[in-house]
Amino acid sequence: MNGRPVPQLDPTDRRILTAMQAGLPLVPEPYAEVAAWLGLAEAEVIARVSALQSRGVIRRIALAPNHYALGMLANGMSVWDVSDAEAETLGAAVGALDFVSHCYLRPRARPVWPYNLFAMIHGPDRATVEAHRAEIAALLGRACAASDILYSTRILKKTGLRLKQTGD
Amino acid sequence: MRRAPLDPEALDVTDRAILNRLQEGFPICPAPFATAGAALGLTGEEVIARIARLRDIGAITRFGPFMDAEAMGGAFCLCAMEVPEDRFETVAAQVNAHPEIAHNYARDHRLNMWFVLACETPAAIARIARRIEGETGLNVLRFPKVREFFIGFRVAL
User: Which of A78, A140, B15, B114 is the most buried (most CB within 10 A)?
Assistant: First the structure.
């Protein structure tokens, strides 16, 4: 879609990613543990995981907070029509807000959809989400021509993203 | 996945610091928990015990690598449709029947159905979208990601 070349993963990279997919083992030397599972040297696993992160295949190794457990019971997909000239800068600023978990630039689909900046807002309740939305509106100021917010009313389907087990 | 909020007392200041800091990244070195803990004034064993507890009480959903799905060789696209209310359930079933639909949400907008297509190739995204259009007689608007800004979100300390 974006023409970016897809980096090739060799079979060993794929085995490492598959082994780590369910989570990093909670032991003092987790990369040595993954290496032991796969019959590799720890140094090779560390080198390959570092390289995969440098290439952007692994975006980061991190924990994923459970928004609901942390009291963030409401969320809304806020959408903004931001001037193209300022979209990169303003997108980064919106993405840096504490209450925004995901932030993307996407193409518009005029006339039905004039919005190019998508920011998922989290809060303990809908009133807080709306207050956060007003903060984003203030941040964007006159660079934003129109905005809306879409609340999800129902999950129709949800399946996790899973790496295929096969070697290619 | 836990849907109920935790008692605010369930997390102390150190838990919250771990939640914030370890969303941003984790070291790739022989003893990464010790390295991560040093910045928080904790030993590696303490960091491990706290992450295990955060997982057990449901404060986190996972701890591990976040992979770029496109770099893994796939193609992904957010799509939206304007579905007449009286056909909504039928169209939802038609859309969800495709294994390439990763998730699908009803939303309160004129564009009332939003789903993500996950395919092997970019060409397959267009093919499946056109197939859904043929089956439903409705437009499938495609919103591929042009740029992603990731920061995560912070819990108050």
Answer: A78
Q: What is the DSSP letter of A114?
A: -
CA-nearest of A158, A13, A74 to B3 is A74
Q: By three-state DSSP, how is residue B74 classified? A: coil
Find tokens 């590799």 and name the residue.
A40
Map residue B136 onto helix, strand or coil.
helix
Consecutive 10-residue averages of pLDDT for chain A (168 residues): 57 93 94 98 98 92 90 92 97 93 95 96 94 98 97 82 46
DSSP string over A73-112: -EEEEEEEEE-GGGHHHHHHHHHTSTTEEEEEE---BTTT
Separation in Å, CA B93 to CA A145, B104, B118, B141: 36, 11, 17, 18
The 8-class DSSP code of residue A113 comes to B
* Cβ–Cβ gap A152/B4 under 8 Å: no
The secondary element (H helix, E strand) that includes residue A157 is strand A152-158
Cβ atoms A35, A42 nearer than 8 A: yes
Confidence of residue B68 (pLDDT cuts 50, 70, 90): confident
Kind plus residue range of the DSSP H or E element containing B141? strand B141-143
Q: Residue A122 in contact with residue A72, Cβ under 8 Å?
A: yes
CA A56 to chain centre: 13
* Interface probe, candidates A58, A70, A97, A166, chain B, greatest B C-beta count within 10 A: A70
pTM value is 0.79
Is the ipTM above a cut-off of 0.90?
no
Q: How far is residue A84's CA from residue A144's CA, in Å, rounded to a whole number? A: 10
Residues of B in contact with A1 (CB under 8 A): 75, 77, 122, 125, 144
Segment B105-113 mean pLDDT:
96
For residues A7 and A25, what is the distance between their CA atoms, to the nearest angstrom? Answer: 26
Would you say residue B71 has pLDDT above 80?
Answer: no
